[in-house]
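Example (one chain per record):
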Amino acid sequence: QVQLVESGGGLVQAGGSLRLSCAASDPTFDTYTMGWFRQAPGKEREFIAAITWNGDNTYYADSVKGRFTISRVHAKNTMYLQINNLEPEDTAVYYCAADTVEAAAYRNDYENWMMYDYWGQGTQVTVSS
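Predicted structure:
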């Protein structure tokens, strides 16, 4: 059983920055793909970014390229999402997810939330204009 805990969300002004963290309880954290998704009120869950087990490959939604950076530190069992130049449209609950069976990598389908089998509880990001 993998437990994921997000932190770092909050209320920020447009143009500001945040760094979200996702701490994993699993000691095999360094063996599988991780991802970030978000969901705004009334909208579907949206893929943001994914990172392979070794951190060598990252994938981003077109809407966040250049502003968001995903990373992971195995020694801390933690994944990060650096968000710069925040926009009101970024307001959402942000979730981290783990793909412990490497389904996303096998299918080359990192944007599909169904490829991820463990999820955190989410952290709220609110951007004021």
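Caption: DSSP finds one helix and eleven strands in the chain.
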